[in-house]
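Subject — a protein and its fold
Encoding — discrete vocabulary of local shapes:
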Amino acid sequence: VGAIASAVSDVLPDGMAEWADPTTTTLTEASRAAGLVPYSSIVLGTVLVGFAQPYFQCTPPMLSATWFASNERATATATALNFNQIGIAVAFLVGGHMADSEAGI
């Protein structure tokens, strides 16, 4: 594999030779070439979101059990969980409008 990588790196333009390195992943190199955040940072962010998820998914049932009568709990829980998703959608819309120019990014 090393001989193939060095042979391929000889024909690639400058700055592209690292693509022939068999120890790197395609996603990592694609994100580097596109000037994006490193793939390991994306994975770390995904893991952190995964750790935060139970707080957003488990808190509404506990709050509705504490603050609402038994015949109102299902409605209160459903409303809280759905407005969490609406908040995420609004963040995407607002963020998209804020990042419409280079200064907004």
The CA atoms of residues 53 and 63 lie 16 Å apart. The chain has a mean pLDDT of 76. The chain is about 70% helix and 0% strand.
